[in-house]
Design brief:
With 230 residues, this protein is an all-alpha fold. The chain is built from 8 helices and no strands. The chain has helices at 4-33, 38-64, 85-109, 114-144, 148-167, 172-176, 183-187, 193-213. Helix 1 packs antiparallel against helix 2, helix 1 packs antiparallel against helix 3 (85-109) and helix 3 (85-109) packs across helix 8 (193-213). The longest helix has 31 residues, at 114-144. 37% of the residues are buried.
């Protein structure tokens, strides 16, 4: 028997991956409208397909874990209401997909249940390309508009707060977490919330700060993350 925690987590992943596909489809449309390089458009289209595969594989894991309820997809979250390619690039890809790489790598390390391991193998492989797409897209946006770094510097603090509320110490589940998790749950590809927060903090120093600095974006908003805690 699997725990309710396993079923809840994989049910949430079905919706999260499906939502990512929908949001990336908005980016695809804007890239075409803006006359972006074909390689960027092709990469974005591939991401849509990847995310749909991830959602389907997550559903297979959920069913294998005994799940029967449909995924709780919030249709209001399936679109980006403000047509803002730069904001979507930074929020969804440079921030979200960059931290997803070490996060899924961590979840995969102790995952041994076959369908869950297969899903995480595929997701991790794809997330690397999704991360790289985000930074390539930001590079292109910088090349066509010299004001992009200053705008990202101005808007990044609010996005970082949002990110911390989802993955870091700003999420109430992190403050309430005692770090306890069973080996069985880890075997299904789970980790406690506090480990998510630790991974986010490491990603700040390893990825966010040097990558944004290289593009002329001030990373001062990341000072809120205390590296001494990890």
């Amino acid at each position: 028997m699997t725990s309710a925690r396993v079923r809840e987590e994989w049910r949430a992943r079905i919706a999260a991956e499906y939502t990512s596909a929908a949001l990336t489809s908005c980016v695809v449309s804007w890239l075409i409208e803006d006359g972006a390089p074909p390689d960027l458009i092709d990469a974005a289209l591939a991401i849509v397909a990847d995310e749909l595969v991830h959602s389907r594989m997550s559903h297979e894991v959920y069913v294998a874990a005994g799940g029967t309820e449909p995924p709780a997809i919030d249709r209001a979250q399936l679109t980006i209401r403000d047509r803002d390619l730069l904001r979507a690039c930074v929020r969804v890809f440079c921030l979200g997909e960059t931290v997803a790489v070490p996060l899924f790598r961590h979840l995969r390390e102790r995952c041994t249940v076959a369908p869950a391991r297969e899903a995480l193998d595929r997701i991790l492989r794809d997330e690397v390309r999704h991360r790289d797409f985000g930074w390539d897209l930001l590079d292109w946006l910088c090349s066509v508009d010299p004001g992009v770094p200053a705008r990202v510097t101005a808007e990044l603090p609010a996005m970082v707060v949002e990110l911390e509320q989802g993955y870091g110490r700003g999420n109430p589940s992190v403050a309430e977490d005692d770090g306890a998790i069973s080996d069985d749950d880890r075997a299904w590809g789970l980790a406690p919330p506090r480990e998510y927060a630790e991974i986010l903090t490491r990603t700040v120093g390893k990825d966010y700060v040097p990558r944004f600095e290289a593009r002329g974006v001030s990373p001062s908003c990341f000072k809120r993350f205390d590296q001494s805690d990890i």
